[in-house]
Amino acid sequence: MLSRQTLREEPERIREALEKKGVDDVDFDEVLEVYDEWRDLKAEGDELRHERNEVSRSIGQLKQEGKEEEAQAAIDRSGELKTRLQAVEERADELAAELETAMMRLPMIPQEDVPVGADEDENVERRREGFEDLRDLPDDVTPHYDLGEELDILDFERGAKVSGGYYFAKGEGARLEHALIQFFLDVHREQGYRDIFPPLPVNSKSMEGTGQFPKFTEDAYRIEGEHHEEYDDDDLWLLPTAEVPVTNMHRGDILLDDDLPLKYQAYSPNFRQEAGEHGTETRGIVRVHQFNKVELVNFVRPDESDDRLDGLVDEAEEVLRRLDLPYRILEMCTGDLGFTQAKKYDIEVWAPGDEMADGPEVGGRWLEVSSVSNFEDFQARRAGIQYRPERHESAEYLHTLNGSGVAVPRVLVAILEYYQNEDGTVDVPEALQPYMGGQEVVEGHEPVGESALGAGDRE
């Protein structure tokens, strides 16, 4: 969250950030009114305490001097001050809680060099990689959702039967998912990342710490049980991203300068209800409510976060380089930046199986596989994560960054479509073959059960 100092000293910068990010559900004038009243009451409280202390000290002196009437007047005044101070403090506490709630809905201020734009159409493509030497593709690339069923490595019908809208990865499809996860973890371990295997349930306080709450409760899966109508700190949710538990590992901690930078990686399944909003992406495994992902989380000194953002982009895209998958890097404009980010890049892999209006000149479409973000001190303030530059110095808020390293299903989509052969088989990328027991080609499986037979065969 933003600091009260920023609210006091740079209100117009915050107002500009609200406009640039398209945040229209916050009455900023009302926030300022609450802050001004709270600040005035704090000042009045300080004055009342000072006067009460002065009056209290004078009472004994007046009594010693035999000035009983003046002493009684001082006692009466002390009582008045105490009553007024109590009322001021109670109101100040109410306003402080109201201000805290309001400030939880104020977005992070974009960095000065972030492109200004209204929405994703105004994001800026920074570069493309891997298009210089594309492999030969079939004349008609079969979309992954059709190919997956033809090879019997993806099963959407049975997924819907048992869970109402998910999918089964089967046989070589399941092996590909497992192989990708282990491959990603190994690559990032080479880059100095420490492995974390996080819990899947996270509490509301953790969701607040990374900025998912209170703004995005409708996207989260709540674990049913005893809970209030409004979410409570003790409520549990299925994690939407491993960013939540891994960042909140250090909630309330004071780290030492020698601890930084901290680089964690975590594999987890992730659960989000926002999936399925974008038309054609509802087919297949591009937009699903449960998906596997390796998350990269960094804790760094404030003066190092900009350089670390560039390094994090490079670390995330390394897996695509090794898989020889074509991709591009986009810089998010202010309107598509997101609530918590000061600056963000998206990494989008190219999948040639579906024609999309925003695809490259050679056809196909772009699939976001990673968002790499610098939150500066926004999450650290919400979660109370600090570091001490020197052991004798005051603690300061550090900076947090994160990026997917990367989302598994969409990389699987890209592999099934980009490495597809004319006969409907799929070559296994060379970097992935050791994780597939040396297997070089996915040939698929024969379906099982009567549903796999033609009508004549069943008779």
Whole-number tally of structural domains: 2
Whole-number average pLDDT?
91
Going by helix content, strand content and strand pairing, the class is alpha+beta
Helix proportion range: 25-40%
Could you describe the largest sheet, including whether it forms a barrel? 8 strands, mixed
| Order of strands across the main sheet | 1-11-12-13-16-10-9-4
Annotated CATH homologous superfamily of the largest domain: Bira Bifunctional Protein, Domain 2
Strand content: 15-25%
Q: Tally the helices: what do you get? A: 13
Please give the CATH architecture of the largest domain: 2-Layer Sandwich
Low-confidence parts, pLDDT < 50 over ≥5 residues? Answer: 275-280
Number of strands: 18
CATH fold node name of the largest domain: BirA Bifunctional Protein, domain 2
Overall geometric form = elongated
The Cα radius of gyration reads: 28 Å
CATH class of the largest domain: Alpha Beta
Provide an overview of this structure.
- By secondary structure, the protein is of the alpha+beta class.
- It has two domains: 100 residues, Serine-tRNA synthetase, tRNA binding domain (Helix Hairpins); 323 residues, Bira Bifunctional Protein, Domain 2 (BirA Bifunctional Protein, domain 2, 2-Layer Sandwich).
- 38% of the residues lie in helices and 19% in strands.
- The chain is built from 13 helices and 18 strands.
- Strand 14 and strand 15 form a beta hairpin.
- The protein is elongated, with a radius of gyration of 28 Å.
